[in-house]
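Colleagues,

For the teaching module next term, I've prepared a clean inverse folding example: a structure given as tokens, and then the sequence designed for it. I'd like students to try predicting residues themselves before seeing the answer, so please don't circulate the second half yet.
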């Protein structure tokens, strides 16, 4: 397991504490989820756990040799092609060149990298650049997987494929730490970051994703807590799923998924 003990972080000697005494255990085969608003410090915490930054105080122990880290925003100004960049990452992780190249082709196909891995990363769209960030995290099966806002920048098929890849890693015993919107929280341990500290939080109610089947449908008529609203999709939370679904279906909504 990876253990975070009393970790504190600030970016200057007199600056505010972004993290102020964080304790956390990331266990094998379990998804640990951090929920927080923007600018609260969740990305800072994930970078610390991944080893991409160092804490001002406290310590992190049990970090394995193979860490896969997907940042919220992938570096864009890289002149190398995706294949060259991932080849460099593969060498750093001790992978034979042939194995690296085969894995690059496999991941590029799974994530539908367009126009492919043989063009400069700087020329890729934001979404495809983010796919390269996902590919480098999974190039070698991670023992610890850290993913910051997994849905950021990815299209729906790539989000679904990333979810499948995370599930495979979980089944293989990887420790998984991610930050997510509440509408996308998977099963696992949930924590909220408040005032620089983590607070355990139980998942409340059932989250239901709905799609309108006719123009003019308003989420206001669902009588539930709206977690996410975007074109063609609304995610709500309710303590009475049966009643909500009966009304929603009668009004013309279509069920995408329901997660307890």
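(Answer key — instructors only)
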């Amino acid at each position: 397991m990876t253990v975070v003990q009393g970790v504190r972080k600030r970016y200057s000697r007199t600056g505010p504490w972004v993290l102020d005494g964080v304790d956390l255990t990331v266990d094998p085969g379990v998804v640990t989820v951090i929920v927080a608003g923007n600018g609260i410090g969740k990305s800072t915490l994930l970078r610390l756990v991944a080893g991409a930054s160092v804490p001002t105080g406290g310590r992190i122990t049990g970090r394995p040799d193979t860490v896969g880290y997907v940042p919220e925003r992938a570096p864009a100004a890289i002149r190398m092609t995706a294949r060259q960049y991932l080849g460099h990452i593969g060498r750093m992780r001790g992978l034979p060149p042939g194995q690296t190249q085969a894995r690059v082709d496999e991941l590029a196909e799974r994530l539908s990298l367009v126009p492919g891995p043989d063009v400069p990363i700087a020329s890729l769209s934001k979404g495809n650049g983010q796919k390269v960030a996902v590919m480098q995290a999974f190039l070698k099966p991670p023992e610890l997987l850290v993913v910051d806002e997994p849905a950021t920048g990815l299209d729906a098929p790539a989000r679904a494929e990333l979810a499948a890849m995370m599930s495979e890693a979980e089944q293989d015993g990887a420790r998984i730490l991610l930050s997510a919107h509440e509408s996308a929280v998977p099963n696992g341990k949930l924590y909220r970051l408040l005032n620089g500290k983590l607070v355990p939080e139980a998942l409340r109610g059932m989250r239901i994703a709905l799609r309108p089947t006719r123009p003019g449908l308003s989420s206001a008529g669902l009588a539930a807590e709206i977690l996410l609203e975007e074109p063609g999709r609304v995610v709500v939370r309710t303590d009475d799923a049966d009643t909500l679904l009966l009304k929603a279906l009668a009004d013309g909504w279509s069920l995408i998924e329901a997660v307890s």
